[in-house]
């Protein structure tokens, strides 16, 4: 089958929202570049027309190499979904410097790296979309989230200004800000007391949104005509209060 749809690149594609997005776009006939540290999981996914790459998003060379490999086969990336992220929760004073730096590196530097790998060519083609996964945590601060809040506030600011500077080149920037989603993002939180407090809210929402819910929103925003830019989508389970 000859593919007529453009290449979609997704970071953090081995689980959660990234995996659901990869599966959905592939089912719709898009070739997909799947990037994650756990490449063995990517390789095991039953997805057609995929390119997989072991990528640490804090290393821009790894992202560039993966994109070059995929573009030689499927043409230029038309959509980048910057999804990779971590959320080690802890009170600021108790959180290790290692976890603080890791949160900033993955959640901010990883987004910047992804953008820098595709934006200039999108501008040159006068076409393309970058979707950055932020969070409701980008709107207000909350207990045990200082570094995570800060990283997502930064993603919002970077995305908004990059959109203003590149919109004349017909390039869209879209912020997706999910609330509580039933993913493994909590795996990086090791403080049991902090984790249990968070899980109370999550369990009250029966896990919150599903990864597939967010993937559907990403597909919707992307498949709108190029002249329509849904700049920001804040989405939560109906029963989530904040």
Automatic annotation (TrEMBL):
InterPro entries: NAD(P)-bd_dom_sf, Sc_DH/Rdtase_CS, SDR_fam. It comes from the Bacteria. CDD domains: SDR_c. PROSITE patterns: ADH_SHORT. Keywords: Oxidoreductase. The keyword Lipid biosynthesis does not apply. One of its GO terms (molecular function) is oxidoreductase activity, acting on the CH-OH group of donors, NAD or NADP as acceptor. Belongs to the short-chain dehydrogenases/reductases (SDR) family. This is SDR family oxidoreductase. It comes from Mesoplasma syrphidae. The lineage of its organism: Bacteria, Bacillati, Mycoplasmatota, Mollicutes, Entomoplasmatales.
């Amino acid at each position: 089958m000859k593919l007529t749809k453009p290449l979609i690149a997704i970071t953090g594609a081995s689980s959660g929202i990234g995996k659901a997005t990869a599966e959905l776009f592939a089912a719709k006939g898009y070739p997909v570049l799947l990037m994650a540290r756990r490449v063995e999981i990517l390789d095991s996914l039953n997805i057609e027309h995929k390119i997989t790459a072991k990528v640490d998003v804090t290393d821009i060379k790894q992202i560039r190499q993966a994109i070059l490999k995929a573009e030689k086969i499927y043409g230029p990336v038309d959509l980048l979904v910057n999804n990779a992220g971590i959320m080690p929760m802890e009170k600021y004073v108790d959180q290790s410097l290692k976890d603080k730096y890791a949160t900033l590196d993955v959640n901010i530097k990883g987004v910047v790296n992804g953008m820098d790998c595709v934006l200039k060519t999108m501008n040159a083609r006068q076409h393309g979309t970058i979707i950055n996964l932020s969070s409701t945590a980008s709107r207000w601060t909350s207990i045990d989230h200082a570094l995570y809040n800060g990283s997502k506030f930064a993603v919002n600011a970077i995305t908004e200004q990059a959109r203003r500077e590149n919109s004349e080149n017909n390039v869209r920037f879209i912020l997706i800000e999910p609330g509580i989603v039933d993913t493994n993002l909590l795996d990086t939180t090791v403080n049991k007391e902090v984790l249990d407090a968070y899980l109370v809210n999550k369990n009250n929402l029966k896990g919150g949104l599903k990864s597939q819910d967010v993937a559907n929103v990403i597909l919707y925003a992307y498949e709108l005509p190029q002249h329509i830019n849904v700049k920001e989508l804040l989405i939560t389970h109906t029963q989530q209060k904040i």
